[in-house]
Amino acid sequence: MYVKFCNFGVYADEKAAASKQQQKQASPASADVYRKVILYRRLSAVLLLICVLLLAVLLALAVKLSEAKSSQECPTNAVDVERTTAGEVCSRSVCEAMYPPGRIQAPNGHACSECGRGWLKFEDSCYFLSQTRLNWLQSREQCKKMGGDLVVISNERVQRFLTQNGLMMYWIGLSRSDSQQWTWINNTVLMNSYWSDTRQDGDCVFLNGGSKPRKNWYPNQCAAVSHYICQKTRRTLWRRISQHCRDFRSGCEVSFVSLVSFTSCTLSSFGGL
């Protein structure tokens, strides 16, 4: 019996020693695994960050490419024009093809013209034949308030047009300087003239509407009162803004912004210019 107890004690000591030996052997292995896990997690975080950055770069490039494609590819004919979206409209010709000026109507039934109410359009200019009478200087000031100046008759076509459309005596933008030279308001010297056979003293000039266009200019005193003819440039400016074509026209009767349709140009028309 004593022998068995001794043997049991020896066995227990051997088992404890073996357990300690296993712990000593397992401890370095566990530390090595822990270090590998930490390293793996750090590498995974770095790779994830790189992937996120690459994704952001790809998205930015895709947006830039889409914008460049939208701004460069325009429809080339009427059929293609009707199929385009507002973001693809990128030229004056495309906007004009989609919505010609004659088709655009302002609110309350007012038509938007390039010159404005009461003005006559001829070639590249707009002309206003007044119903009121002022002296030459007052006439010029009134024309400036309306966005123009007294008319400069630059060729025979304009001379005939004004003569045919006017029935009164009108001030024009021609006067005599201190050097006794006839000069237009734009400081150009008179070259082609249409003087009447009947001449009288004066430093400013009438145009007699409804008479012979080749001989209907009359000098007169600048203080005399008469009707007058104003002139301004006919302007239509198209430009690309926020992927839409905008049409800024002068002389509109009312100020308005009209979205013609969901796939239209945005046309902004402003009066009083």
From TrEMBL:
GO terms for cellular component: plasma membrane. The chain crosses the membrane at residues 43-63. It is found in: Cell membrane. Keywords: Membrane, Transmembrane, Transmembrane helix. The keyword Transmembrane applies. SUPFAM superfamilies: C-type lectin-like. The keyword Transmembrane applies. It is a single-pass type II membrane protein. SMART domains: CLECT. Residues 122-231 form the C-type lectin domain. InterPro entries: C-type_lectin-like, C-type_lectin-like/link_sf, C-type_lectin/matrix_domain, CTDL_fold. Its main location: membrane. This is Si:dkey-26c10.5. It comes from Astyanax mexicanus (Blind cave fish).
